[in-house]
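Appendix B. One record, verbatim.
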Amino acid sequence: MPRALPALLTLFTMFTFAPGCGDKDSADDTASAAEAVPDGTFTLDYVSAEGLTEADFAGLTITIDRASMSATLTPTAGDAVVLTLTEVPEEEWIKDCYTSNSHSVSEVFTVSPDPVVIGALSIPSPGLTTKCGGRVLLGSVVGGEVVDPTLGFTE
């Protein structure tokens, strides 16, 4: 019996202090913070679209103006694309940044026109949101998630 005690204590410690990855479908998961879409000008640093890379959009910026509920995509060559932003109710914001017992929510705006077309890229069901760490995302929003195609922007 004395030999079993250290093994039991080890198992107890492992299960008590084991880190979790978080489960986005967990019912007891609670929101710990909300990330707002920021005002400002941001430069493209990420493309997730079949057959396209960051090089295809070099120099592309997005300027977000929350007061006027608009955003402007400005390529290095060609015409700027003006987007109209529409608020999405907070209960429909995107859950993100999961930990073992919490998550944050990211503000979402629907975007028009639909689709957003910039160069060779067409983004249907477009939405504007943020990602953990503050990256601004313009992408298709389906079922409460940002899916491809997606453009990411940072300061």
